[in-house]
Design goal:
The chain is α/β, with parallel strands linked by helices and about 400 residues long. It is built from 15 helices and eight strands.
C-alpha cells in the first residue's frame, strides 16, 4: 500500500515539478522583456481599423464601452462594431443612435466565436486592415489603439495588449487583478523575451483583419476561442507579440459565483484543447515548430492557484507516511513555486490591500477545486460572466 502511495505521489510530483519549472523559467525571463517604444514602421500609413465588441446580455456596461470606443483617439480610420446578442430593446435603441455599426445576432447557443464570425460576414464588403477585439466591459487607455496600429505597421500580424484591472473593489476582484498581472508577466513578457509567442487573452488583442477572419471561420469553440486561435496562428508560424504599452482595462470578477463560472470556463477550455492538440504538438516538435509545442505544453499546467496547494498536500502526506525524501522534494518545489509567483506579481500590488485579498485565498482555492467537477457543463454551454452588477 505504501509503495502504491509513493508511486502515485511521485508521478503527481513529477508533473507539478515540471509545471513549477516552466512557470519559474518564464517568471525570470519576463524581466528581460523590452517594450517596443520605438517601432520601425517604415512610414506605412495607419491601418484602417475595425473595433469588434461582442456583447452578450451586457446591457449594464455596453453603452459606456461603445461611447468610449467611439471617442477613443486614433490616427487612422476606425469603425466601431457592436455585436448585440440578447440585449434589451432600450439598450438597442440607445446604441442605434451612436456613430457605430450595430449587428444583432440570434443563436440557439451563443458563443463569442459565432458572434465574431457572423459580424465579419456582414462586413465582407468593407476593406479593413486591422481588427481590434474588445469585451463588452473593456475600456481602452488613451493611445492603446495607436500602439496596436504601430505594432501592425511594423509588420506584426497578431498582437496581445496589456489587460489591466478596471476595478479592485473587493478581495476577489483584487485577487483577479493580481492573477492578471502574474499572467501578463509569465505568459506574455516571459515568452516574448526569448522569442516565443505571447498568450492570447480573448480581448484587448489585434490582428491583421484578413488573417483573423480566415482563421476564425474555422473556429467554433463554445468557450476559450482565444486558445484555439492562439494555436491556429502559431501553427501557421505567426508569432504573437505582446504590447505592454497598449493598455486595455478589464472588469475583474467581484463575486465568488462569478469567479467560479469564469474559472470553470477557463479550465474546461484549457483541457479540451490539450487533448485535441497534443498529437499535433508532438509532430510540430519533430517538424521544428517549437513555438507550437511550447504553447500546447502550457495547457498541461494545472490551474495556478492549485499548484502550491497540490505541492503542500504531497509534502504533508509524504511526511506523515515517513517518505521524507519525497516530502523534501515537494517542499522544495513548493518554495520555488511561491518564489515564481512572488517575482511575477507587479509592484503596484504590494500593499495592505494584498494582505486582505490573500485572506480570500482559501475560499478561492475551494471554488477552483469545485470547478473541476463542473467541467462537463462548460463543454456544452457557454458560461457567461456578467459585468457591471456590483
Amino acid at each position: 500500500m505504501l509503495n502504491l502511495l509513493f508511486t502515485i505521489q511521485l508521478i503527481f510530483l513529477i508533473w507539478l515539478a515540471c509545471s513549477v519549472t516552466y512557470v519559474l523559467l518564464y517568471a525570470v525571463t519576463g524581466y528581460f522583456y523590452k517594450t517596443n517604444q520605438q517601432r520601425k514602421v517604415d512610414n506605412n500609413p495607419y491601418p484602417k481599423a475595425v473595433v469588434l465588441i461582442p456583447a452578450y446580455k451586457e446591457d449594464s456596461v455596453i453603452c459606456q464601452v461603445a461611447e468610449s470606443a467611439i471617442a477613443h483617439p486614433y490616427k487612422g480610420q476606425k469603425e466601431v462594431v457592436i455585436i448585440a446578442d440578447q440585449l434589451q430593446a432600450a439598450t438597442m435603441n440607445r446604441l442605434s443612435k451612436m456613430d457605430l455599426t450595430l449587428v444583432e445576432v440570434k443563436f440557439e447557443k451563443s458563443t463569442k466565436a459565432k458572434a465574431l464570425n457572423f459580424a465579419m460576414s456582414t462586413l465582407e464588403d468593407e476593406t479593413f486592415d486591422m481588427a481590434m477585439i474588445l469585451d463588452a466591459d473593456n475600456l481602452m487607455k488613451e493611445n492603446a489603439l495607436n500602439c496596436m496600429a504601430e505594432e501592425y505597421r511594423s509588420g506584426k500580424l497578431a498582437i496581445q495588449g496589456n489587460r489591466m484591472a478596471k476595478n479592485m473593489n473587493t478581495s476577489f476582484a483584487f485577487l483577479d487583478a493580481i492573477s492578471e498581472g502574474i499572467n501578463n508577466h509569465i505568459y506574455c513578457k516571459g515568452p516574448n523575451a526569448v522569442n516565443l509567442s505571447s498568450r492570447l487573452v480573448g480581448s484587448g488583442m489585434a490582428f491583421d483583419y484578413s488573417l483573423f477572419k480566415a482563421l476564425m471561420a474555422e473556429i467554433d469553440a463554445i468557450g476559450g476561442f482565444d486558445k484555439e486561435l492562439e494555436l491556429a496562428l502559431i501553427e501557421q508560424k505567426v508569432k504573437i507579440h505582446y504590447a505592454s504599452d497598449a493598455i486595455v482595462f478589464d472588469e475583474k470578477v467581484s463575486k465568488p459565483d462569478d469567479f467560479a463560472n469564469q474559472r470553470t470556463r477557463w479550465i474546461s477550455a484549457q483541457y479540451q484543447f490539450l487533448w485535441k492538440k497534443l498529437p499535433k504538438a508532438l509532430s510540430s516538435l519533430i517538424s521544428g515548430n517549437f513555438d507550437y509545442f511550447y504553447k500546447t505544453m502550457q495547457l498541461v499546467l494545472p490551474p495556478r492557484i492549485l499548484m502550491p496547494f497540490f505541492l503542500l498536500m504531497i509534502t504533508m502526506i509524504s511526511w506523515f507516511f515517513e517518505l521524507q525524501n519525497l516530502a523534501f522534494i515537494a517542499a522544495l518545489f513548493l518554495a520555488l513555486n511561491v518564489l515564481a509567483y512572488s517575482i511575477a506579481i507587479p509592484k503596484m500590488f504590494w500593499n495592505k490591500q494584498m494582505v486582505n485579498a490573500f485572506l480570500s485565498l482559501p475560499r478561492a482555492l475551494f471554488i477552483t477545486v469545485s470547478c473541476l467537477f463542473k467541467l462537463s457543463k462548460a463543454k456544452k454551454t457557454f458560461i457567461h460572466t456578467p459585468h457591471g452588477n456590483d
